[in-house]
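Hi support team,

I've been running sequence recovery on a batch of backbones for a student project. Most finish fine, but this one hangs at about 90% for roughly twenty minutes before it completes. I'm not sure whether the input is malformed or the queue is just slow. I've pasted the structure tokens below so you can try to reproduce it. Let me know if you need the job ID as well.

Thanks,
M.K.
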């Protein structure tokens, strides 16, 4: 069971509520997100694109934009090289769309996950050289491609890196770090220690978007497009910057909140045939989009093609002007994602069997080797295993050359830093605090597992999942107006979780199981006020039923579903929602966790 902790940060909630015309509970949630001071609160609640940071603050951004302006005017061939995930596809689209609009001779390549692996490689560089490419422009990769960029420079090419991943470094004898940058003509990555950009948490597509802000300004000065056309194009690109921010699980704090908020609205009204088709096949047209729709419906369709086929298909969907082609590709991506779900389920089950039946279960860092698993699913399976065990997880598979894998971390474990301590075991690696990728010879797998566990630095407390309760609040406090006010706090996601509340002594009166797969519980519950509410549960019903049986007995659990119980009284963590049925709105609570 997770440990429950109450957020108890102090402020004058009534004063904040009066000043910003919000409920005091909303004011308390804002304080729990460490948003303090009138200026920060105003930006959190009502920030606009005018509050986004100046792209010129990104180190080398003006230099990179100037090079691209010159290459555009000279009609030099520019090759954008992206990545096969959501962030890489969106970043590639942003760069190519903006460069093309200004008349640049631009082409795009997205590496094949299995044949090429992540980022730049010598084959892609040689191919570019043979095709007369003058300038390589990376996005969502490149910061760690030291030898590859050196090779491109030796062939006489100009190289611009745009990335957001951690900069490789060497640890000196005194413990200090010295960054090792690629020998590119310009390196735009906010993670550089000497980059003055005030917010380091932007994704690769936003880094690309910021560079294009400057580039389009320079090309507008050259007369390639008007100031109005520049603003319209940047608005269109916000859809892809926001999409990638959610899809790459960036923290939805600071300017990322604004980018996603405006990006979601732009997706809803986008003229891009590919985006419209993706909404259509997922039955999301005419709906108000949230971060959930990107993270769990639309985004996985883009990722699926990069995992099981080629991400070029997703890029083609965004670039096509033909509605019919866009709809065809969108349908194919959805079908691929449905197939990916089945494969992921099987891989997750196999990983859990290994953990439960071997010494892996005792490890603080899980390294699970699934030789026959499709290598593209390693990251998703790692995420599922992390959720189950709340431990850092690496899932490794057999690739074309040796072992490849992905890792997903927990808050108390900086995955990239710990990996960097034994980098002699790898042929390639990269990532950041919460996620990473790695390649290594198969004979190094056990040494990798042994080292990470011997040097994890994790305590038992670090491995105890914590649920932070925003406010202990009776369900009777909730109104439809209050739930609507909660939408001021959107978008929800990493770094800005959906607020949760807690109440003791909740009586679970009646229940039934719903859903095609019989995996959703719907209950009628009562609190101390005498009122009853609908409460949904979308979690693990098997564990929930075991909890009920352990604490209240099988007879009472059966009675709950057979007609009603009066003996099941629990504490719950929940969030409130509005259910709309045949045009009628009603409150419903969604249970997140429970205890006796």
């Amino acid at each position: 069971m997770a440990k429950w902790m109450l957020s108890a940060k102090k402020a004058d909630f009534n004063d904040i509520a009066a000043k910003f015309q919000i409920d005091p509970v909303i004011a308390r949630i804002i304080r729990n997100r460490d948003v303090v001071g009138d200026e920060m609160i105003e930006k959190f609640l009502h920030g606009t694109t005018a509050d986004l940071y100046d792209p010129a603050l990104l180190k080398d951004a003006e230099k990179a934009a100037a090079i691209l302006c010159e290459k555009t005017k000279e009609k030099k061939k520019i090759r954008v090289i992206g990545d096969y995930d959501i962030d890489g596809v969106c970043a590639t689209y942003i760069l190519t769309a903006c460069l093309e609009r200004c008349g640049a001779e631009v082409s795009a390549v997205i590496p094949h996950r299995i044949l090429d692996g992540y980022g730049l490689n010598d084959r892609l560089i040689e191919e570019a050289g043979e095709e007369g490419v003058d300038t390589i422009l990376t996005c969502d990769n490149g910061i760690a491609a030291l030898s590859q960029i050196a090779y491109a420079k030796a062939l006489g090419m100009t190289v611009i890196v745009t990335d957001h991943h951690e900069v490789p470094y060497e640890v000196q004898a005194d413990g200090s770090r010295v960054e090792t940058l690629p020998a590119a003509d310009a390196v735009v990555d906010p993670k550089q220690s000497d980059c003055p950009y005030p917010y380091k948490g932007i994704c690769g597509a936003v880094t690309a978007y910021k560079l294009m802000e400057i580039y389009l300004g320079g090309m507008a000065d050259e007369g390639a497009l008007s100031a109005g056309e520049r603003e319209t194009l940047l608005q269109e690109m916000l859809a892809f910057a926001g999409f990638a921010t959610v899809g790459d699980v960036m923290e939805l704090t600071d300017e990322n909140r604004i980018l996603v908020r405006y990006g979601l609205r732009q997706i809803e009204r986008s003229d891009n045939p590919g985006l419209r088709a993706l909404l259509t096949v997922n039955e999301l047209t005419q709906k108000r989009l949230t971060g959930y729709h990107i993270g769990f419906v639309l985004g996985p369709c883009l990722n699926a093609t990069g995992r099981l086929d080629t991400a070029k298909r997703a890029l083609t969907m965004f670039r096509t002007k033909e509605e019919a082609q866009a709809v065809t590709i969108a349908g194919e991506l959805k079908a691929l994602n449905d197939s990916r779900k089945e494969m992921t389920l099987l891989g997750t089950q196999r990983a859990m069997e290994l953990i439960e039946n071997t010494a892996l279960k005792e490890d603080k860092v899980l390294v699970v080797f699934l030789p026959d698993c499709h290598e593209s699913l390693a990251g998703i399976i790692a995420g599922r295993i992390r959720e189950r065990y709340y431990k850092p997880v690496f899932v490794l598979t057999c690739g074309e050359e040796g072992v490849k894998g992905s890792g997903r971390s927990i808050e108390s474990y900086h995955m990239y830093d710990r990996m960097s301590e034994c980098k002699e075991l790898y042929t390639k690696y990269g990532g950041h605090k919460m996620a990473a990728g790695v390649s290594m010879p198969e004979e190094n797998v056990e040494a990798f597992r042994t080292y990470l566990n011997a040097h994890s630095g994790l305590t038992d407390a670090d491995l105890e999942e914590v649920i932070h309760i925003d406010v202990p609040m009776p369900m009777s406090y909730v109104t439809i107006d209050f739930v609507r006010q909660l939408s001021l706090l959107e978008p929800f996601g990493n770094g800005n979780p959906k607020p949760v509340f807690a109440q003791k002594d909740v009586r679970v009166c009646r229940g039934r199981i719903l859903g095609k797969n019989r995996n959703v519980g719907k209950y009628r519950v009562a609190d101390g006020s005498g009122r009853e509410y609908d409460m949904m549960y979308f979690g693990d019903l098997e564990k929930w039923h075991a909890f009920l049986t352990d604490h209240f007995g099988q007879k009472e659990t059966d009675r709950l579903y057979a007609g009603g119980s009066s003996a099941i009284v629990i504490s719950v963590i929940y969030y409130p929602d509005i259910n709309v049925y045949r045009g009628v709105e009603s409150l419903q609570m969604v249970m997140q966790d429970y205890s006796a």
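--
Follow-up from support: It reproduced on our side and the slowdown came from queue contention, not your input. The longest strand covers residues 501-514. No action needed from you.
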